[in-house]
Design brief:
about 350 residues; mainly alpha
């Protein structure tokens, strides 16, 4: 077995704390990994975290706990930011458009069955006369020098004529077919088709990606940092019963238990309630188990394991630590333990 990376430093724990507080993800990841190894495998270094009480900025334990618990608390902060954002309210409403694409009414009249090689007969009925007039106007406009200009270029009289012709020439269902709602439905239909294709995959905001972004952060996942922080707090909490000479850890045990409980509740509640984005066209809304994501579940399971071990170690001292019976019952319930 080797030694920790900071072992040869003039101030090993000081170097470790600098890494834990670093703003750089890589540095913090290595520091949290080393701390997790120290708390499990290196007894002498673990004991030094309890015994170093004269350090600028607080004891080594206090600064270690603040850094690790802060990493866990960031999960709760990101959840709150997401829930308070306006976009999270409208996403689920937009998602309903996936199942509401209706078949459009017919816009044009049926295809004529006349012989197209013969000259058409002159219009007799009023409707036929209107069709012929409008056809001549639009043909001359499309082939004229001003083709491509807006319809308003025809002038107010022509626009009024077109409006009257529309009312008399088109059936009500045809006028409805070219309405704004109908055009929007058409756009939605083809957009959903595009998103379901392989070309639309990069544009989907899938549930797994969105949930991990909130729980584990972006642009890079903090999964390993979070898991190592949980493990370190668990091991340091348990070990303090026999290795903490000054009792500096006891006063912080209630805070650790409450942090674990609140974070577990927040993650589980958020996983169940996060709206499914309307672009996630392959998500099965009827499958509740599909909401669980492996990386997020790792965090929940690790928190519950840590909570169980803290309860087992300090449950008998709960009243002396300031934890009431209701708090302990809630902690046991969240951890999946039977209440006494």
């Amino acid at each position: 077995m080797g030694v920790p990376l900071t072992q040869d430093s003039r101030d090993p724990n000081g170097s470790l704390l600098i890494g834990l507080k670093s703003k750089k993800d890589v540095t913090k990841a290595f520091a949290s990994w080393e701390l997790a190894l120290i708390t499990r495998l290196f007894e002498a270094r673990r004991k030094s975290i309890y015994s170093e009480i004269e350090r600028a900025g607080g004891t080594t334990w206090t600064q270690t706990m603040t850094s690790c618990s802060g990493t866990i608390q960031e999960i709760n902060a990101r959840i709150k930011i997401f829930q308070d954002s306006p976009s999270s309210v409208t996403t689920s409403q937009q998602g309903q458009s996936q199942d509401n694409v209706q078949k459009l009414p017919r816009l044009s009249a049926p295809v004529k069955q006349d012989n197209i090689l013969t000259n058409p007969r002159p219009p007799v009925k009023r409707r036929e006369q209107i069709e012929s007039t409008i056809g001549s106007v639009t043909k001359s406009y499309g082939q004229g020098p001003n083709q491509g200009t807006p319809l308003k270029a025809l002038g107010p009289y022509a626009m009024q004529s077109l409006k009257i012709a529309q009312e008399k020439l088109l059936y009500p269902e045809q006028r409805e077919a070219i309405s704004q709602a109908s055009l929007k439905s058409t756009f939605t239909k083809y957009l959903m088709k595009f998103l379901r294709s392989r070309y639309g995959r990069p544009f989907r905001q899938i549930h797994r990606r969105r949930l991990c972004a909130v729980i584990l952060g972006t642009p890079y996942s903090s999964l390993n940092i979070v898991l190592n922080s949980i493990d370190s707090l668990r091991e340091l909490g348990k070990g303090s019963l026999n290795e903490d000479p000054y009792g500096t850890v006891n006063k912080d045990i209630p805070r650790l238990i409450r942090t674990f409980v609140s974070t577990i509740n927040n993650i589980e509640s958020f996983t169940k309630s996060i709206p499914i984005h309307w672009t996630d066209v392959e998500f099965d809304v009827k499958n509740e188990q599909g909401r669980k994501v492996e990386e997020v579940q790792q965090v929940v399971d690790r928190l519950k394991d840590g909570l169980k071990e803290l309860i087992a170690a300090f449950g008998g001292y709960a009243a002396d630590l300031g934890l009431g019976p209701k708090e302990m019952d809630l902690a046991r319930q969240v951890a999946g333990l039977d209440t006494p």
